[in-house]
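anyone seen this seq b4? input:
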Amino acid sequence: MTPFIKALTRHGCITASPDTPISKVVMLMTENNVGAIVITNKDAIVEGIVSERDIVREISVNDDLSFLTAEGLMTKEVFSVSPQASSSELMHVMTNKKIRHLPIISNRKLLGIVSIGDVVKRMLEKYVNEAEQMRTFINS
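predicted toks r here
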């Protein structure tokens, strides 16, 4: 497991079950300031993901979401990464699949989630550290 992924798995991941009402999913997203909720079964196996995009897409065709559950709105084709994924691999998947959230899965079990914001933050930290090392080298 890469150090970056290890740190992300310590944060956990907000999940909901397939039968969770969309109103509850939206409330979880709001309360936890996240853009996606992973939908898992009772064995922590990922069945889907509900993102802000899924909600906006549904609102564009349906004013009333009160009758929907997570299962009715979730994206079922979930792209994910293993705990061994590098930052570069994460960026590659997110860019090519045009997604902003990737569950981290091992042996079909959810370990955590990485967002595009996590990846950007990691890359900025890396560049700041490299710049500092260069300054130290030049000034020594």
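The CA atoms of residues 14 and 37 lie 6 Å apart. The beta strands are 15-16, 36-40, 46-51, 101-106, 109-115. kinda curious what u guys think
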